[in-house]
Amino acid sequence: MDMVKENESKQKYVDILSLGGFNAFFGDENNKDEVIKILNEFLPEHRKVAKIRFMPTNHAGPILNVSKEFRYDFMCEDDTGAVFIVELQKYHEKPWFKRCVSYACRAYDKQNRAGKDYDVPPVYLIGLMGTAIDHPNKELWKNRYISEYTFMEKDTHDLLGETIVIIFAELGNFDKREDECVTRQDRMLYMLKNSGKFDAPPMWSSQEKYDGILAALCIDDYDDDKREKYESDMKDERQLRSQLAAAQEIGEIKGREEGLKEGREQGRTEGRLAVARRMLEAGVSIDQVATFTGLTVDDLAKMND
């Protein structure tokens, strides 16, 4: 048994920032109440939800020329028709914001095409970020972990209508210890980032009514089918991570031999492309490939040149 697998076998709770952990939590309709708690932590007061309906995540594309469909990581709607999307991003990807805008716009436009004549409910996309965002002015973002983007008049901040809202939870920048988390938001961020490392619930979990979330993340509570699916997802992720690391190392060595920084960067990109190609050939959606490898849309498009 390798060290990674041995460590995972000792886990009490899934890592929600892993693909397997994310799917185990958000992919189970029994977790509706717990999903609502997470959504409401990041949604504005007027948009808190009480009931949700899980929605299909696969949608007709086409996106690029390598797939006829695209896939949201998680999607649901409330009783007003407002749509909520949760996307997981583990690795740095420069056009990540633009990709989120594209995803949210597709969901918004789909409602228009359903015959609602532009008077449609809003779309909220929440990005759980295992990596940092490249904010232009980093000084403004010290000790700030939540960002929100929407259509607003530049000077007056007039908001003529609630349309598309993109919210990022920057877990990659969050470094507070358990005892330093005093606000509810800090405690939610801590739990989402560190769930896979817990030996026991955080000291404040019952106070914040997080027991249900932790139960949904507890591996020992999974039935045989769910546990088998989770372990299969994690096995696939380990293999892909290993392939990605090996391919990047080979590419970097090749680039280093050429003696150029640009060569090393190109080598790493080629390594990620090699893994992306394997994932696509195995039927993994284009969106999951981008999430896992951190490749850009342009990089993926070059594979078919």
Show the helix and strand layout.
Elements: H1 3-9, H2 19-26, H3 32-42, E1 52-54, E2 58-63, E3 67-71, E4 74-78, E5 83-89, H4 96-116, E6 123-129, E7 146-150, E8 164-170, H5 184-194, H6 211-217, H7 224-257, H8 261-281, H9 286-293, H10 297-302
Parallel strand pairs: 5-6, 6-8
Antiparallel strand pairs: 1-4, 2-3, 4-5, 7-8
How would you sum up this structure in a few lines?
This protein is of the alpha/beta class and 305 residues long. The protein has 10 helices and 8 strands. The strands form 2 sheets. It has a 6-stranded mixed sheet with strand order 1-4-5-6-8-7, with helices on both faces. It has a two-stranded antiparallel sheet with strand order 2-3.
Task: Walk me through this protein's architecture.
The protein is α/β, with parallel strands linked by helices. Mean pLDDT is 83; it is low at 62-68. The N and C termini lie far apart (40 Å). The longest helix is centred in the last third of the chain and has 34 residues, at 224-257. The protein is built from ten helices and eight strands. The protein has a six-stranded mixed β-sheet with strand order 1-4-5-6-8-7, sandwiched between helices. Strands 2-3 form a two-stranded antiparallel sheet. The protein is 44% helix and 15% strand. The protein is globular, with a radius of gyration of 20 Å. A hairpin with a 4-residue loop joins strand 4 (74-78) and strand 5. Helix 8 (261-281) runs antiparallel to helix 9 (286-293).
